[in-house]
Amino acid sequence: MALYTQPVSASSRPQILLYTATTGFRHDSIPVAIAALKAKEDEIDIDFFATEDPAQFTDESLARFDAVLFLSTTGDVLDAAGEAAFQRYLNLGGNFVGIHSAAATLENTTCYVRELGAVFDYHPELQNFTVDVLQPSHPSASMLPAQWTVADEVYNFKSDPRALGAVVVLSANKASYHDPVGSHFDQGEPHPTAWFQEHGAGVQKGGVAGRSFYTSLGHLNETWQNELFLEHILGGISWVLQANTTRGFNVNGRVGNPMSINSKSVTTSMLAPQSSNEPNAQHSGTQGNAFSASQVVTGVATLLTLGVGQILAKKIKLI
């Protein structure tokens, strides 16, 4: 199969590398998912750069992106050089999103597994089940009903993502699905289905930790045609980009769309304390001294005025 790489965008909007390579099982829903995300670009003011080419994982290429999204990938889709480049990208404040079988990818690559949160174990047969919303204020879940019925695969994992500092957003309600096998590993309770890391655990000591978001949903073509599911995905993506560690939102970022610096980037002084957001600290610019009320108001006003994205106005909640 020939590798597909979308032409590079000349846009000044935040850029996301949408990686869909597979060496194991390949989901029929991948083209549908790509089309669904691309159709939302103008609505959320983001550009998706779709590729299956592992050669895109170099320092030079990854430096253009505000986030890397592994969409239904499977198997060992990077060589050693690509894995090393991905590690350096994370160390420089790069953000990560994983969807569905991204959890069945690069299972022996430490930085990837830690940034993801947990590795896929198995799933029972596809079925309707109930997802409990555990974090209703999170942008990936704020639009969902407290109990959300989905038709998908109930993923089980080989570890508990909470052990790496992840916060579980969605949980598969055990009373709602049939699983004749039962979990082989301790994945924790309640059953993790989607989660986020404020500071991605894949970063090495001394690096700048961006954000990470993962959801195990997304198996079917029909799922990617469901607006509620798409809002769940786009909410997670928008939250990840608000790490304030990349050029799309921080002129001091060391990765991210370089064209954002001269157009829409929000400067350090707009959104973060002056003393804590140079990209040489271990965590993102949202840490450190508390925001003042004037900083928050100014930052939000600037984001909306500059048109960083409608989704930020719709879904991001500053507390």
UniProtKB/TrEMBL annotation:
Pfam families: ThuA (PF06283). Residues 16-240 form the ThuA-like domain. InterPro entries: Class_I_gatase-like, ThuA-like. This is ThuA-like domain-containing protein. It comes from Psilocybe cubensis.
